[in-house]
Amino acid sequence: xxxxxxxxxxxxxxxxxxxxxxxxxxxxxxxxxxxxxxxxxxxxxxxxxxxxxxxxxxxxxxxxxxxxxxxxxxxxxxxxxxxxxxxxxxxxxxxxxxxxxxxxxxxxxxxxxxxxxxxxxxxxxxxxxxxxxxxxxxxxxxxxxxxxxxxxxxxxxxxxxxxxxxxxxxxxxxxxxxxxxxxxxxxxxxxxxxxxxxxxxxxxxxxxxxxxxxxxxxxxxxxxxxxxxxxxxxxxxxxxxxxxxxxxxxxxxxxxxxxxxxxxxxxxxxxxxxxxxxxxxxxxxxxxxxxxxxxxxxxxxxxxxxxxxxxxxxxxxxxxxxxxxxxxxxxxxxxxxxxxxxxxxxxxxxxxxxxxxxxxxxxxxxxxxxxxxxxxxxxxxxxxxxxxxxxxxxxxxxxxxxxxxxxxxxxxxxxxxxxxxxxxxxxxxxxxxxxxxxxxxxxxxxxxxxxxxxxxxxxxxxxxxxxxxxxxxxxxxxxxxxxxxxxxxxxxxxxxxxxxxxxxxxxxxxxxxxxxxxxxxxxxxxxxxxxxxxxxxxxxxxxxxxxxxxxxxxxxxxxxxxxxxxxxxxxxxxxxxxxxxxxxxxxxxxxxxxxxxxxxxxxxxxxxxxxxxxxxxxxxxxxxxxxxx
Length: 629
What we know:
The protein is an alpha/beta fold. The protein contains 20 helices and 25 strands. Strands 17, 18, 19, 20, 21, 22, 23, 24 and 25 form a nine-stranded mixed sheet that branches. The chain has an eight-stranded parallel β-barrel with strand order 1-2-3-4-5-6-7-8, surrounded by seven helices. A hairpin with a 2-residue loop joins strand 11 (326-331) and strand 12 (334-339). Helix 1 crosses helix 10 and helix 10 packs parallel to helix 15. The relative contact order is 0.08. Mean pLDDT is 94; it is low at 623-629.
């Protein structure tokens, strides 16, 4: 598959864009005229530089307002086209995009436009060039690929073809299945973009809110299935206009773009098994069965305080690593690893962030296939030396430079706890905590699209709608990523200002990733009472919160009083109910949560977040650090 991306899709100056695109593994670029006009070099120099970086110019664009013009305007349009042809030949590319006109003096008519393109095709043929016609969703006379195809068909010239763009088709709710009726050899180029579903002017929506396939809500896979069914085997290219991307990392955006194309074509192959696609074959999306472990990098007094908190929550110190200063704490199927090593990755993470969750282990169906798929989708590998008797557990880099390890049963990796740890301590009944319900990762808001794509392209997980979390000092955007059965859940929390609790955590921890871990209980009241007996101090909630609950929900007064006594919060929806309580924040804003889901409740207690955040901030200094007691 010839992967391509428009230079307008990513940030940076022209050379920075090219370097990022080449490093991400793309075959070529769509070159936007304004990108190289600002570059201090001739078109011939630009073309040479692009090829020196291992890239091809797959498309030159855009050429606007060509067809349907009267008299002198028509003559001028052909003159402009000749000048663009000169430029293309200097650059070393053979295909130009002509988008449907929006010129106020243009005239409609399929035959008139077809005649214009037939003549343009003759001129292009003399130079060995090709012309692709694209229907803009807001075109004055042509805004549907079916009409654009009819113009191309009637032009009936080998050097005139169609360019289809997923945004222009899907934003107008045009059935992409209609593309299947177009001969594949008459489709000269394919552009892809996703977008969130927003009810707004099409031009504004297109120019500001496009994103990578898999990051939005449009059925881009259905569009691409229809395209591939025609037999098209040319470049598949990204054309993304997004205000947020313009200020992002060119390297990261290019990597996301490449990841989105490879994942999309893998989806197309699996949905259309009879098609022969010129695209790499990779393992399918991986089933996640839950979180196997959470590892803290910690030291000295902070480690002792964390161990005391775990003991107060009913965890038992069950094992020590055979050769490292690493302790395993467990309760139910929850494993918490405390790593006090002074060398290696955990030590580096501690030096950077202080006490931090540096590593999360996921229980997956196939650990090695997970890594193979992740690396094919441009994830960054992680390795460190393995000592005698230790297992080589596959891993990749994740949010904030943290690590994701993958553990499965079939390969024996799940035996790591008996292989690498020697038993210590005594078993206890614990406090009724059974497993990790979800892990919450904090990041800057402009990273959320990237990390949601990361998780949903590698794993069999889907995005829930984004919600706004109201912090007394700003807004945090939150989005859940979860498996179909809810066994694996990750929430992404995007901070826009350091004044929020999430933003303060990012600032104070120098970019720490996981801010809190939620543990599941089958009886949250019994868990809360057991933990209180062990010395656990919950996050205190104000009486006003419970008075508001009484007004909002028909709760039994005795239940409400019990909840208030244990600082348990509550939410419900049409599917079920949700109970939750929190630890007090520690280590710069990390905290634990205990939850109980009743019946089909699938949320995260979002309405309670403002009250929880306010309570946490009351216990923390303005800079976000816990008070010393």
